[in-house]
Write a structure and sequence with these properties.
By secondary structure, the chain is mostly helical. It contains 2 helices and no strands. Helix 1 runs antiparallel to helix 2. It is elongated and about 55 Å long. The relative contact order is 0.19.
Length: about 70
């Protein structure tokens, strides 16, 4: 079983969602360090983007299994 997703739109969307999640976590840390509670919004954004990443990873795996079987 390959570790990476097959190339395609689901892979690109999953990678962008992961990048957004990492950036949102970094923004939340910076916000909380500066004493701003706007970091809560960034934490929520990180949660949504991580869910999007898992969704697109799962979708790509299901598409790959459907194509193989």
């Amino acid at each position: 079983m390959p570790a990476l997703l097959p190339p395609g739109p689901s892979r690109r969307l999953a990678l962008m969602a992961i990048a957004l999640c990492v950036l949102a976590v970094a923004a939340a840390v910076v916000s909380f360090v500066n004493g701003s509670f706007v970091g809560i919004v960034w934490v929520l954004m990180a949660g949504i983007s991580s869910n999007m990443a898992w969704f697109y990873v799962r979708k790509a795996k299901l598409e790959r299994q459907a194509a193989a079987g």
